[in-house]
Amino acid sequence: MAKFLKFLGPAADLDLASITRNTVLEFRNGIAKRNAPATANADLKAIKMICKAAKRDGYIIEDPAEFVETARIGSEQARRPFTFAEIQRLLSVADAEWISLILFGLYTGQRLSEQKISCEFLAEVEILKSRILPVHRVPRFPLHFIPLEMRE
Question: For a FRET experiment, which of 48, 95, 125, 144 has its CA 20 to 30 Å from that of 75?
Fold first, then answer.
């Protein structure tokens, strides 16, 4: 909701009826340009719920978000991998904890949000003799140990 109010700017102080379908579309499209379509759709869903409740409770006559479609998931651009130089720059300024996170992501392909830094994580990863075995894997594909350079 805070994103929508920020998007509206001074118009946020106007009557709820001043919000139009085009306003909701511009908001959705703006979010979709800067974020993944799933993020834009989650924000749109929140706006739809608010508008639906406002209509139900008699604050507005028409729901401006009712027929606004979700952002297309297929339009998402592929993310490019970090270059070697970018990884080196990250590692040069990172502390020990962040270096571990960056290297685990590099070796396992996990996103930061997928890395669990807890006892559960230690149960999912086996570190033996300078190699790592990611336990989460795609079925039907063999396990592969990934060699690590151990630093002291």
Answer: 48
pTM score, whole prediction = 0.52
Tokens 């379509």 label which residue? 37
Domain locations in the chain?
Answer: 2-75, 84-147
Q: CA–CA distance from 73 to each of 14, 15, 77, 78, 129 (Å)?
A: 33, 33, 10, 12, 42
As a whole number of angstroms, the distance between CA 81 and CA 106 comes to 10
pLDDT tens by residue, the chain, 152 residues: 788 889 889 988 888 889 999 999 999 999 988 888 888 999 999 999 999 999 999 999 999 999 999 988 764 456 677 888 888 899 899 888 888 878 877 777 766 665 554 334 444 454 444 555 555 544 555 555 555 555 55
Which CATH superfamily groups domain 2-75?
A: Tyrosine recombinase, N-terminal domain (1.10.150.130)
> What are the helix and strand counts (H, E) for the chain?
6, 3
Q: Which residues on adjacent β-strands are paired with residue 125?
A: 134
Sheet holding 146-147, edge to edge: 125-128, 131-134, 146-147
